[in-house]
Amino acid sequence: MRKRLHFVHGPTPIERFAPHGDFALQEIDLWIKRDDMTGGACAGNKIRKLELLFGHAQERDANHVITCGGLQSNHARATAILAARLGMRSTMLLRADDTKQDLPALGNVLLDRLVGAEIRLITPAEYAERDAYMASVASEITGLGGKPYVIPEGGSNGLGALGYVHAMREVKQQLDAGLGGGKPFDVVVHACGSGGTSAGIALGAHRFEVAERVRSVIVCDDANHFRKVVDRIVRQAMAHGDLEGGPAPIDFDENARGPRYGVMSDNQRTFLVRVARASGLVLDPVYTGKAFFGLDAAVTRGEIAKGARVLFVHTGGLPGMLAAGEAFAGDL
Ligand SMILES: *Cc1c(COP(=O)(O)O)cnc(C)c1O
């Protein structure tokens, strides 16, 4: 397999979800893979992908990474921090309704700025053409004598997805050591935003016999969109070898998207607060809070059987939570 740098403080813990209070989730055998603990300020799911993507950037002798995301992108923040650590420059194209606004000094953007990333705000219409925009920034940097490396949205290509194939190998080793209940899961559940985590988990879960199925709870677009996107990433990842068995089947759950990307429904916010108070598990408002809400709803609807062994991957996002104080003010 490909060159991989070492960023993740692993193996990350697998903990049982045992809340003090009543949750539909108590009807299943629920374990949480704490990938919110993959590192310090750069923690979350993205650094697993970035181990491979920065490895590739180094093979290419790049000295400047370019990537993109929403204004409070966890992926952009992790990329900015790791670039600073490796002595590389970074440019972030971040989507904003108002591109003339003063940059916030909160959450992910605070961290981007702290480590010296260059931030360029682009409109949602421009963001739809993000790959072309990133390519033009790359030529600009080349023109100035730099060596750019473009990382796609979310780090979600075949190479990045291999980070989650490795994560599933890590889970397998933990199960073999008797952790997490010591035997395979029925399903791995996680939040899905750009598809790379889904593709890697599905390939790794099958390859290492971690689970029968994967349930990707989407936070934007729709299930059809992600079927296509994840299928493409899976095929790219398989080209890197040793994954002939293909992916475990994936169910895309589109019932927990809430009002729109980055905005929770009242029920979702209340649930996130209730989980935090009953268990100390802190979720984020954009991804994991919706995915965990979606899991609870799927258990209530009977889509996941009572007693099923479930692994929920906590993919991080704490800085986004810390930027969402206004939305949560009424729930505190
Ligand atoms: C990016 C992100 C996800 C989604 O992962 P994708 O690979 O982009 O689908 C889930 N949770 C958090 C906290 C994230 O930052």
Describe this structure in words.
The chain has about 325 residues and is of the alpha/beta class. The protein has helices spanning about 45-60, 75-85, 105-115, 125, 130-145, 160-175, 195-205, 225-240, 265-280, 290-300, 320, 325-330; strands at about 15, 30-35, 65-70, 90-95, 120, 150, 185-190, 210-220, 250-255, 310-315. The strands form two sheets. The protein has a six-stranded mixed beta sheet. It has a four-stranded parallel beta sheet with strand order 5-4-3-6, with helices on both faces. α7 links the parallel β7 and β8. α1 (about 45-60) crosses α6. The N and C termini lie far apart (about 45 Å). The mean pLDDT is about 95. Bound molecules: pyridoxal-5'-phosphate (PLP). Pyridoxal-5'-phosphate binds near residues 44 and 191.
List keywords for this structure.
single chain; 332 residues; alpha/beta; six-stranded mixed beta sheet; four-stranded parallel beta sheet; 12 helices; 10 strands; 41% helix; globular; binds pyridoxal-5'-phosphate
Chemical compounds bound to the protein: pyridoxal-5'-phosphate
Q: Quaternary status of these chains?
A: single chain
Radius of gyration equals 19 Å
As a percent range, the share of strand residues is: 15-25%
Number of helices: 12
Low-pLDDT residue intervals, each spanning 5 or more residues:
none
Strand order of the largest sheet: 1-2-10-7-8-9
Shape from CA axes? globular
List the helices and strands and how they pair.
Blueprint: E1 14-16, E2 29-34, H1 46-59, E3 64-70, H2 74-86, E4 89-95, H3 107-114, E5 118-122, H4 124-127, H5 130-143, E6 148-150, H6 158-176, E7 185-192, H7 196-207, E8 211-218, H8 223-238, E9 250-253, H9 266-279, H10 288-300, E10 309-314, H11 318-322, H12 325-328
Parallel strand pairs: 2-10, 3-4, 3-6, 4-5, 7-8, 7-10, 8-9
Antiparallel strand pairs: 1-2
